[in-house]
Amino acid sequence: MTEDVSAGLDTPAADPASQTAERMAELWADPPGLRGKLMAVQNDAIGKRLLFVGFFFLILGGSIDSLVMRIQLAVPENDFISPELYNELFTNHGSVTMFLVILPITEGFAILLLPFLLGSREMPFPRLGAYSFFTYLMGGLFYYSSTLFQLVPDAGWFAYTPLSLTQYSPDLALDFWVLGLSVAEVAAIAAGIEIIISILKFRAPGMTLARLPLFAWAMLVTAFMIVFAFTTLVVGSFLLEMSRSYDMKFFDPDFGGSSLLWQHLFWIFGHPEVYIQFLPAAGVVSMIIPVFARRKIAGYPWLVAAFVAIGFMSFALWAHHMFAVGLPPVVANFFSAASIAIGIPAGVQIFAWLATMWVGRPQWKTPMLFVTGFLVLFVIGGVTGIMVASAPFDLQATDSYFVVAHLHYVLIGGVAFPIFAAAYYWLPKFSGKLLDERLGKINFWMMFVGINVTFFPMHIAGLMGMPRRVYTYDAETGWGIYNLISTIGAFVLFGGILVFGVNLIYSRYRGLPAGANPWGADTLEWSVPSPPADQGFSIPPIVQSRHPLWDQDDLHIGDPHTVRFLHGLSEWPLTWRAAIVTGTNDGQPEEVIRVSGPSIWPFVAACGTVLFFIAEMLHTLWFLAASATVIVVAVVLWNRPEPVPTTLAEEEEFERAHDLPVRTDGGRALAMWGMGLSLLVAAIVFSTLLLSYLYLRIENADWPPPGVEVPGLLLAGVALVAVVASVGPMLRARRSIDTGSRSGLLSGLAAAGVLTIVGGGLLLYDLTQLDITAQDHAYGSIFYVLAGFLLAIALVGLVVLGVVLGAAWQGVFSPRRNAAVTNALRFWGAMAAMWSIGLVTLYVLPRL
Amino acid sequence: MKRLGTTRTAAPAQLDPSGPAAGEIATLWWWMLAGATVVTILVVTLLVIPILRRRGQAPSDGDDHEDVAPALTRRWIVGLGIVMPAVVLIGVLVFSVATMRTVSRAAPAGSVVIDVVAYQYWWGAEYPGEGVTVANELHIPAGQPVELRMTSADVIHSFWVPDLQGKIDMLPDGITTLVIEADEPGMYLGACAEFCGVQHAMMNFLVVAQPPEEFAQWLVEQRAPAAPPTDEESRRGAAVFEDAGCAACHTVEGVSDAEGATTPGPDLTHVGSRRTLAADTISNTPEEMARWLRDPDAVKPGTTMPVPELTDAELADLVAYLESLR
Fold first, then answer.
1. How far is CA A238 from CA A110, A256, A269, A272, in A?
2. pTM of the prediction?
3. Partner B contacted by A77 (CB < 8 A)
């Protein structure tokens, strides 16, 4: 048996096997034509598209903008461009690179690579990946369309209030910024959820957490950080948009608001964002160094610990961007210490990499060159990072060119260099052609020289007192020569990036064939042909080592039970896309599930999402309602259970043969993780609103403001009781499935729905009766937003319940298939908790 | 463009500090630079050695794909990756906290206090209890700590004189304070360091540190109401000032009061005594002032100052009047 299965790594030889492979390729291919392009869900397609989007925006906003700015600053008192245009350019440059370049590129690499790296056939939610791509693209285009209307955002990538409020930025430019980028943020969160579940549950049998490739570890931490940080920013952006559109007062100090609340919300996102960009790069470096040094990585557990530590620590140091706002020295020192401490996990990483190179025999291929350049630049950016983490020095350095120098060393040297390394290393896997080495070396040296010539002099200009974001400066300041050097360097750097583009095109036609494993690498993606088949692994591999291709002679031997199971899975099912869910920790197969195939609905949902944000910008209520309906309908349709082409008997036979459950409804683990992470997002939204409430409460001596009554307890109290009580019938409904009581299920679901409608209705009625407005004071603004969030959660719950009730009516659920009801129960539990905390905060807290 | 003439040094230089706070921070910087240099050289050396050592050797040998020895891993990661940075970083932290303490020290009682208000794109300042209001040029006594109480009338700005002290933001939410001190008399360039709108670049100012007795004399001069015009030209100019609507936004003590204006402009009571105009954008000469008044937006695009519709003769009279306000 074992002999049969281990016939070969690349191509099955025997005739029935090749027929099987053909059928499998057919099954996993995206449909042809334009419609097929819109329906595509294959991770290769989605990943490549995200990379393309990122590179496109890199040229547009990352490069062209900066060259124009550098020309303007090349000589003092220059009038090459107007101050208005300059401000638009630096706003665009920062916004595009932070939201539309590095994130789609790293998430694109993750979606492209993870299934191959982990030895699985697909991402867990292929349609979510497709949705993420379309939202990224359309969000970016929506943001960029501001140019067409001459409404280009100009308040910086940080959009500090009150400059970004309508009083100082009255036209729609800032709305393009808030809403366009929010669409991209939604895309980032969607891809983040997809990546987490992929890494935790979609691995080859035997790939324990301790055998996870380091890039996957880095992406796991990154994806969690994306979920936390970007959700916070979406909430902050929502509050900003409410202030701009509906005159709410969160950030207006004249009406109980605080201009610093925005800065806190922005930097709670903004600092983790730096590490969200850096960690995938660290993962890439940890993959490439061992391959080219021909040694296993030194200190694998240390590196994992460093990634996780950075993930946690990055959320505790946002205020180091705010040393100059007049923080009390104790607070400043705390954030100083926290920021400086991140030098330790950074040190662990650097010396783990250096140790591996020290004992190895580095081969000077282009990926390794970029990694070496990265190490040098990252150390320079790192030591200046420690300097600006020192609060007193930062009082001089912040908002000066010293910081501009520091951050570009970190983001270009520390992030872009590893991304280029990753491109040279991994793209041949998917194109089948190696990138040209000679052009690669030119690419590297131009970029390495370019970055140093551009950014090193900026340290000096900053120390000489040159502030950031100035479109011109006086000759007598003496900054001219440093700026001229920087400008020259920027063109060299850009030239280097262009060489990469040339290399891509050249190699497409003249590139040497890559073969399955051109670098002699150790991880699973190099065991499949380049380019790989859509299904990746027809017979999933068995992993017995952290470096399977180095340590294992054969990827298809293991314990007979698993071998038989994997072999079985390559023959059945061939009519739906089967994937293996493995144990989070031990990597043992837990269930066989069906992953979804091509669908037009993710594209429709993405269109709905971008239209929703456009409708918000135009303040058109019917348009808002229509696009919201499109989103709901599209999401419901893309999750609609599809007919199963195999029979229950076949499923049961497979289960008996391999002692593993077959779940064509998506599986239990995925349902749990999917719902769990969705609820996590909801909880982060809720916590952010709650913390904003408490921040404003502390900022105001009188709460509520004089002349405003704390709302009465009665109606809200009854509403809360009704919503909390609705968990009971929900629980009964779930239990009724196991006892087989259809009436119990239906009546439980219905009762939960009725109670929630009663609770929501009462709260809504109460809100309409209150003598509080959202426009007069920050108290009213945050009151209505928090209460509105509770209503929105209830509404989402009712939509979910409606779908579940419909399915229950049709008798879809059984002890075997009940993920949707279990998820509804989880949702109800979370909703009851949020309602309790939220209503106590709004109605009881001000009385204490 | 402007010529500063008497400044100690035209270019700001935080590493050649002129005040105690900037001096402390510069000392901290030099130590951090030394540490940073050592760390960078160490890492680059450890990176370059294997590159040179292995050059020319066969790309592969018998020990391919082996583990890095655990002892070496431990030495490098724990020794170089944790202990060494920890020692360096604790040093940085202790030094930082100590520096923060002196940099944020409050001014002793009885120090000169200045209330500074930032506007898009200029600076107003009052010396409380002295009846002195100025714009874009702060005078302080040299060798004494001066307390600045700062706020913003509109968006967030940041007050930065690199030669003297780190920066502090000026918020519409309330007061932030900063203590500055210049060791020696001299003139120091200041700038807005927080992006505040279209003309953030030309929102600069001067700090003029004077010997204490000279500073006291300056206060006396500034306290006096505006000098009445003495010659015919400036008398006509005074009339232009009122007719052209300048008084709606600009206070000239004894002539006009712009208190409560929606877009206040700088107090012009002693505008003739200032070294520069329009937040340190141009020198204060009759020619430059005329150029400014002819079309403010051409000199400083985005300024809130409207174009005064004046004939050439009126313009000349107005300049003569304003320059006479010394």
1. 28, 18, 14, 19
2. 0.95
3. yes
